[in-house]
Every structure is written in C-alpha cells, then in structure tokens.
Amino acid sequence: MAYPPRYSVGIGPTLTPAVRYLVIASVAVHLLKSLGAGDEMVAFFGLRPYFVLSKLFIWQLGTYLFFHGDLIHILVNMFALWMFGCQLESTWGSRKFLKFFFVTGIGAGVLSVLFQPFSVIPIIGASGAIYGILMAYGMLYPERLVYIYFLFPVKVKYFVAFLGVVAFLSALNSPGGTIAHMAHLGGMVFAFLYLKGWLSLSRVRQDYYRWRIRQMRKRFEVHEGRDRKKEDDYWIH
Questions:
Q1: I need a surface site. Which of 4, 35, 70, 226 has the fewest CB within 10 A?
Q2: pLDDT value at residue 213
Q3: Are the C-beta atoms of residues 128 and 149 closer than 8 Å to each other?
Q4: 45-90: pLDDT as tens digits
C-alpha cells in the first residue's frame, strides 16, 4: 500500500543536542552577566592573556567562550552556531563536534595569549570556535551556497576564504581592538590543523615512531657498511 509523501516546512537545520546545550549555556551565562555581576564574572572568566601566563588562570581559555558583550554579539554567534554547527554535528556526532568546538575555541584563545601576552583586557565570545566551525563547513561542503543578507548566493569555500583574509588583515592592522581578530584567525587555523590530523596525539606518536625507525635504519646501515669495509680490508685470497 502506497502512502502519500509528507511535506514539512522549516527554516534552517534541525537543532542538534550539542548545539542546543551550547546555546543554552551561552544564553544562561549572558543572563547571569546581565543581572548585575557582569564585570566581576568577565574579569574572572573572560580571557585575560596576562593573567593566564602570570597567575595561571588556565580555565579562562575555555570559559571565555560562553561570555558575550551584548545582545547582538550573542545573537550573531548563536545564529552561526545553529546554521553551520548543526550540520557538522549531524555528520560527526555530538562527541566529536563538542571536541572540535573546544579545540578550536581554546586554540583561538592560546593564539590570542601568545600574540598579546601582556594584555589585561578580557576577550569574550565564542567567535573563535564559530570561525573554526565555518572553516570546517567550508572544507567539508565547499560547493554549498551561503546567501549573504539572504539575497546573494556565494559558495561556502569563497565565503570562508573571504572571512579568513578579513580576520588576518584585521589582526595585523588592529591587534588591540575591541574585537579579538586574532581569536577569529586562530579558530580557523586550529580548525584546519585539526581536520588535517596535525593536532591528533595518535598521529604525532605515529610520526615520532616512524622517525625513530628511520633513524635506527640509518644507524644499522652505517654500522653494516663499516663492518663490510673491515671485512674487505682483511680479506685473504
């Protein structure tokens, strides 16, 4: 028996579990920050490079991702997380997606600390991880279309490349600006390295073992060559 096809009307991807939790956590933190203790929370949980290095406030490399400056800031980031993150989570699974989110977000924070080690101005926002998600989306689905202002279609690979160039130039021209351009660039860099497997500990171990094996083979060949030379020197006819 044949059933008629079912049609549904929707806008954007279905909200996936990990993205939902990240959105809820970010919104909850933003509401708490808006109740009056915002300055103290940002000072303690926002990313301040000098305090990470001098006082070992290591947790700030992860907590800064859940703080945002104003309503527009959090809306833009959560919208991008929903639009592009849900597809990645559906493809990878929730565990791998969450790992990717924090690897790129923390990596963006690390790069910001390295380039501004004496800054005490808090860096907040999930933009580093969001730019990492955009990079991953562009690498996995380069031919898909993104509609700029919902009107102008652009292929994802060109859109991501444009964002990367803008982040790079902005980081060079205004490293002390209110927008952490280095974090944007760092998120894209760490996303690229992660997807290429260059941040994998197992791959690092494998490369190290291959290097050791090559070194051992070279030593064996050298010793074998020396032994043969000695045999040749004392060969009696």
A1: 4
A2: 76
A3: no
A4: 999 999 999 999 999 999 999 999 888 889 989 988 998 999 999 9
Query: CA 26 to CA 2: how far, in whole Å?
Result: 46
For 212, phi and psi rounded to 5 degrees?
-65, -40
**pLDDT tier for residue 13 given thresholds of 50, 70 and 90:** confident
Residue 127 identity (one-letter amino acid): S
Q: Which residues contact 12 (CB under 8 A, 6 or more apart)?
A: 82, 83, 86
pLDDT (tens digit per residue) in 199-235: 665 555 565 566 667 767 776 665 555 555 555 543 4
Residues 85 and 65: beta-carbon distance below 8 Å: no
Alpha carbons 67 and 40: distance in angstroms, whole number = 12
Return d(Cα 109, Cα 28) in angstroms, integer: 22
46: region left, alpha or beta (phi > 0 left; psi from -120 to 50 alpha) = beta
Residues 105 and 62 sit within 8 Å (Cβ to Cβ): yes
